[in-house]
Amino acid sequence: MSDDEYCLIDATRPPPADGPPYAECVLCREPTEHPESYKGITLCPVCEWQEAQRTACSG
Fold first, then answer.
1. Superkingdom of this entry's organism (predicted)?
2. Higher per-residue pLDDT: 17 or 24
3. Which residues contact 55 (CB under 8 A, 6 or more apart)?
């Protein structure tokens, strides 16, 4: 069973960037793996992992 089968939360992710410039993380302002041109919420790998832990379904 994959991780996305545990919760019904929509976890859409921005596309990965081919190279700089990178978008800033909306929480810590560190560079993310996503292109700067992406319009929407972008998180760095650390904040993305922390957010996933915070919002994970228990059960």
1. Bacteria
2. 24
3. 9
Q: What angle do CA 41, 2, 19 make, to 5 degrees?
A: 40
Q: What is the 3-state secondary structure (H, E, C) of 1-59?
A: CCHHHCCCCCCCCCCCCCCCCEEECCCCCCEEEEECCCCCCCCCHHHHHHHHHHHCCCC
Which residues touch 57 (CB under 8 Å, ≥6 apart)?
6, 7, 9
- Check whether 3 has a pLDDT greater than 90: no
Sign of CA dihedral 42, 32, 34, 53: negative
